[in-house]
Amino acid sequence: MSFIYNRTVRFSDTDAAGVVYFANVLSICHEAYEASLEALGINLKAFFTNPSIAFPIVHANVDFLRPMYCGDELRVRLIPQKLSVDKFEITYEIVITDVLVAKAITRHVCIDVNSRSKQELSGEIMQWLETNRKEAEGAERRKSREVM
User: Fold this and answer.
1) What is the count of structural domains for the chain?
2) What is the pLDDT of residues 9-28, one digit of tens each?
3) What does the pLDDT look like over 61-99, one tens digit per residue?
4) What is the mean pLDDT of residues 96-113?
5) How far apart are CA 88 and CA 73, in angstroms?
6) Is residue 15 annotated as a catalytic residue, yes or no?
7) How many Å apart are CA 107 and CA 95, to the nearest integer?
8) 3 state DSSP class of 16
9) CATH number where 51 lies
10) Choosing from 13, 15, 98, 112, which is the catalytic residue?
11) What CA–CA distance (Å, rounded) separates 38 from 33?
């Protein structure tokens, strides 16, 4: 099964209209990303404060399909994919009670912190990508068998 992050929408996530503020959806997605790294045994403090490499987001987008309100129980499915030797992308599917309410994408590039130049993805991120790819493919195969 692909990585699933469960999260309850909090009042602080919402705007004056009572729905999740658009920028907070990306924050929730980033929480899911962090949780998936941690689930693989990656030390978050070392990962995000590593003095030699970083994985900044170079592109992000969100499609809102239904509103999300305070108290909603979210399931965030994380589907990462390697794009090149120095770049990966994560697709997030946000679901409430089996209804897709939002989809998001973040694209990350691996850089050398000192020179700010691109470099190949680290072994630890490659392992994370491979583990999640296999889980996502397995989930898709199971889903396609259910449809038949």
Assistant:
1) 1
2) 999 999 999 999 999 999 99
3) 999 999 999 999 999 999 999 999 999 999 999 999 999
4) 97
5) 28
6) yes
7) 21
8) coil
9) 3.10.129.10
10) 15
11) 9
